[in-house]
Design brief:
437 residues; alpha/beta; Alkaline Phosphatase, subunit A; 7-stranded mixed sheet; two-stranded antiparallel ribbon; 33% helix
Length: 437
């Protein structure tokens, strides 16, 4: 008896119809057993982003910080934060936090995002560690052209007492400063301007850089034998810097053939300083996030030029040592203008929509603050957190026990942004009052 032919299953019918000359794929026909029982996979959720805005000289404590005995939601907004009133339900203030090792009132922002002990390395007069933005950049930067973008104010004496040493607010895994862009024009071209060097020439330049790097690595390895401990440690730092270059070259190679995105703002003009510069930098931050050029930004803001642009004839350092009168009025004016510009930045983040209908604000964490409270006070660092990117409770005034590590806040934001870390800096745990739900 002839063998019985196996009936084709719907799946086998789906794959193709045979003919003498071709294979033609069939659509998913319900008559053949296909049902719309499973929805198409949901698109990937929008990525998380982090922005850190450092203000250097602190705030006017009498008119910027809320009263300590009024916590939770619905607290009276201080005068220095009044321009942010329309966003009060969308940001949280944290008081009581500081850096345990902070002891230099003129140290500026050097340790704001690290919390490091400046004498933490034996035999060295200066030590720093990785900043919180760079921890985030190591994770978020895997999918973007730039791991992170560092912005600085275009004013002289960037290493002055308002911001301290460093090339930006960012410090790498070896505690070395990460360079930033000191004008909106430079930042714009880095982010959005098309390369004017032909692709083949750029490929050759990268190949030449790799060749030089390989030679340097080989020479360094040959030196390693026979070094004492101190020299060995110095050589290891050198190796780390070479590895960082290697990582950068690999990233540039991956993006070599991808054109830069078109920005949503025109190329900036030269010569903007102070308030106009900060406004433009905020626009650049939004453009960088919107185009997914990067997901991590730090901005070390200019204070000297800001005061000049406001026709305030008080030096920043003198202003920070205010007392009732002209200096205090200058400090208060500075606070109000900074809050007004921050409010506009939050407006823009809320108005910038993602493909799923959410906004940039829904997936971004914005931190505004300083590791100096006022004058020479290094405790109770002013800390404002906005945005829903880290899943924090918004609209709150939170007061932590005195001398709570500011790194607890940084740890909370990292974990809330989906970055798996157990500790950061000298953290002792997350700020539970910050965690939503």
């Amino acid at each position: 008896m002839a063998s019985r032919r196996q009936r084709p299953t719907p799946e086998s019918r789906r794959r193709f119809l045979r003919s003498a000359t071709s294979l033609v794929a069939l659509p998913a026909l319900e008559s053949l057993g296909f049902r719309r029982s499973v929805r198409a996979a949901d698109p990937s959720p929008p990525p998380k982003r982090m922005v850190f805005l450092g203000i250097g000289y602190g705030v006017t404590q009498e008119t910027w910080l809320p009263k300590l005995d009024v916590v939770g939601s619905g607290y009276p907004l201080p005068e220095g934060l009044a321009p942010l009133a329309r966003h009060q339900d969308d940001f949280t203030l944290v008081q009581g936090c500081s850096h345990r090792f902070a002891n230099d009132p003129h140290g500026g922002s050097t340790f704001w995002l690290t919390g490091a002990n400046p004498f933490g390395s034996a035999g060295k007069s200066f030590h720093n560690s990785i900043s919180v933005d760079q921890v985030a950049a190591a994770e978020f930067g895997k999918a973007t052209r730039f791991n992170s973008i560092q912005l600085n104010g275009s004013e002289p004496n960037l290493d002055g007492p308002g911001h301290g040493r460093g090339l930006s607010l960012a410090w790498d895994a070896g505690g070395k400063p990460v360079a930033g862009y000191n004008s909106p024009v430079i930042a714009f071209h880095r982010l959005f301007s098309a390369e004017d060097v032909p692709l083949e020439q750029r490929q050759k330049m990268l190949a030449d850089e790799r060749s030089v790097l390989d030679d340097m690595l080989e020479d360094a390895r040959s030196l390693k034998r026979g070094l004492n401990k101190a020299d060995g440690e110095k050589l290891e730092e050198y190796f780390e810097s070479l590895r960082a270059i290697e990582t950068r070259l690999a990233k540039e190679e991956r993006w070599l053939g991808s054109p830069k995105p078109k920005p949503s703002l025109p190329q900036p003009g030269e010569g903007l300083v102070g308030r106009d510069e900060i406004r433009l930098m905020y626009d650049l931050i939004v453009a960088a996030l919107r185009t997914d050029s990067t997901r991590v930004v730090t901005y070390r803001q200019p204070i000297q030029h800001l005061l000049t642009s406001l026709a305030i004839k008080v030096a920043p350092h003198d202003m920070s040592h205010y007392q009732p009168g002209g200096r205090m009025e200058a400090s208060q004016r500075r606070d109000t203008v900074q809050s007004d510009m921050l409010a506009t930045l939050l407006d823009t983040l809320k108005a910038t929509k993602a493909p799923d209908g959410s906004s940039l604000f829904d997936h971004t964490t914005v931190v505004f603050g300083s590791n100096i409270r006022s004058i020479h006070y290094l405790d109770n660092c002013p800390t404002l957190i906005a945005g829903r990117g880290a899943g924090i409770r918004l609209g709150q005034h939170i007061v932590q026990p005195k001398d709570t590590p500011l790194c607890n806040v940084w740890l909370t934001l990292l974990k809330g942004s989906g970055i798996e870390v157990e500790r950061f800096g000298d953290s002792t745990g997350v700020v539970r009052e910050l965690v939503a739900g």
